[in-house]
Specification:
This protein has about 425 residues and is an alpha/beta fold. The chain has helices at about 5-15, 160-165, 190-195, 200, 215-225, 230-240, 260-265, 270-290, 315-320, and strands at about 45-50, 60-65, 75-80, 85-90, 90-95, 100-110, 120-125, 130, 135, 145, 150, 170-175, 180, 205-210, 245-250, 255, 295-300, 325-330, 335, 340, 345, 355, 360-365, 385-390, 390-400, 405-410, 420-430.
Length: about 425
């Protein structure tokens, strides 16, 4: 129970500033930050950062547990945690998370930020504020945490992700579908719990997501609404105008996220055609810009050999326009394939060092942990350079225009007490980025 002195201090802050501030306890497993409040307040929560494709912009999305949009809401930010001297207005959308349980989802785009600068920010709604978070607009040699299929239950990798976040080992996270298991359950409460859990990751680093099959409920409404801010960022800037598929440039990489679920869960031929046409145009543009962004990395939930999808049109585009790396999830294990296309495999001399491969390299990263546990599905055996049936996640570092480094860490029971165990590494070396025959 809070001490009388602490309660009196909060009352003093409220009456003299009109704002209740929200301070976190130390991070620990499954900490629900709302429990830090001693005065009735609906704080901004589930705070999520995303990039837009422009280095001087960030989108901040947050949720308020309120049936109607707050009358007053904004993001205050600045280059000092003690002087948040800039303010950005927010857009708000009321969302029925299930059976009339309403959430207010708010987002704001910060623009004209300085590069290589740390910014501090605070989300506020109806005189109730989050604690102060920060992000950095650094652009060079980014370190990416990479995984898919991550859930609230059996979240094996969470503690190691937090440990490595504190050690400053990540600049961005790439989550390739299947979020929370599942966002819609318990009238959206499971989604709330998971997004609160991972807020230490999502509030401090851009956390880029895409839809998987577990987001399909009610035509992907949970995904589309909870990540609505991404529509105004990567959706608008890439011309897709959606968060289901999009692209963005980050340093010397052109990232493309595609929706592999359109074929099974809302099979709309017009939508299928729109995505394919957008993808072809985006890849053409990316190849014209390869002097600036030589690497093209495609993100998806599924690959062509997996169930309930169709790569008839995706695969030729991926190959012809010179995609260097394809990252997906869905199968709950780790697989690293030799460069491959249409059944042909480029068996490199060194399975941990791919030099000027003829085809795209493929990674399956579906085992950070979820209630469905590890699965045994795999790509055709002849194409697999390395595989593992255990929990873990990936690290990716693009060192320069020709060298990309990848490693996979174990995080489950097999992990030594002193931290995650690296069980696979790869150098992807491409000196001739470009279109293929």
């Amino acid at each position: 129970m809070a001490s009388p002195t602490f309660i009196l201090s909060l009352v003093f802050i409220y009456f003299f500033t009109g704002v209740i501030y929200y301070y976190p306890k130390s991070l620990h497993h499954h900490h629900d930050e709302r429990n830090d409040y001693t005065i009735n307040c609906q704080p901004p929560e589930q705070i999520h950062l995303s990039v837009t494709g422009k280095p001087d912009e960030r989108v901040i999305t947050f949720v308020v547990q309120s049936s109607s949009c707050p009358k007053q809401a904004h993001i205050r930010y600045g280059i000092s945690p003690n002087d948040l001297n800039q303010s950005a207005q927010v857009q708000c959308k009321e969302f029925d998370a299930g059976h009339g349980r309403m959430l207010s989802i708010l987002h704001s785009k910060l623009m004209n930020l300085s590069i290589n600068k740390t910014y501090y920010y605070q989300a506020s709604a109806n005189k109730c504020s989050s604690f102060v978070h920060n992000f950095t607009t650094q652009q060079k040699q980014q370190r990416y945490g990479v995984y898919g299929d991550f859930g609230l239950q059996n979240d094996v990798s969470f503690n190691q992700l937090i440990t490595e976040l504190k050690a400053k080992e990540f600049d961005m996270f790439l989550h390739v579908g299947d979020i929370a298991y599942d966002l819609h359950e318990e009238d959206g409460r499971r989604g709330d719990k998971f997004l609160r859990l991972i807020q230490p990751l999502t509030a401090s680093k851009p956390y880029m997501v895409l839809p998987g099959n577990h987001e399909h409920y009610h035509n992907f409404t949970q995904y589309q609404n909870r990540y609505a801010g991404m529509v105004t960022g990567v959706g608008a800037n890439s011309g897709s105008n959606t968060n289901l598929w999009y692209s963005f440039d980050y340093d010397n990489i052109h990232f493309i996220a595609i929706d592999t679920e359109v074929y099974a869960y809302y099979s709309d031929q017009a939508q299928i055609d729109r995505q394919v046409q957008w993808l072809a145009n985006d890849l053409k543009k990316a190849n014209r810009n390869r002097h600036k962004t030589p690497w093209i990395i495609m993100l998806a939930h599924k690959a062509w050999w997996m169930d309930k999808t169709d790569f008839t049109k995706f695969s030729p585009l991926l190959h012809h326009y010179g995609v260097d790396l394809f990252i997906c999830g869905h199968q709950h294990n780790y697989q690293r394939l030799y460069p491959t296309y249409m059944g042909e495999v480029d068996h490199q001399a060194d399975k941990n060092r791919f030099v000027n491969p003829k085809f795209a390299t493929v990674l399956v990263v579906g085992s950070p942990g979820n209630r469905e546990r590890i699965s045994h599905g795999s790509a055709p055996y002849k194409s697999i350079a390395f595989g593992n049936l255990a929990y873990g996640f990936g690290h990716m570092i693009v060192h320069n225009n020709t060298h990309l480094y990848w490693k996979w860490e174990l995080t489950g029971a097999e992990t030594p007490r002193n931290g995650a165990k690296v069980i696979d590494e790869m150098w992807l070396i491409q000196e001739h980025h470009g279109m293929r025959n």
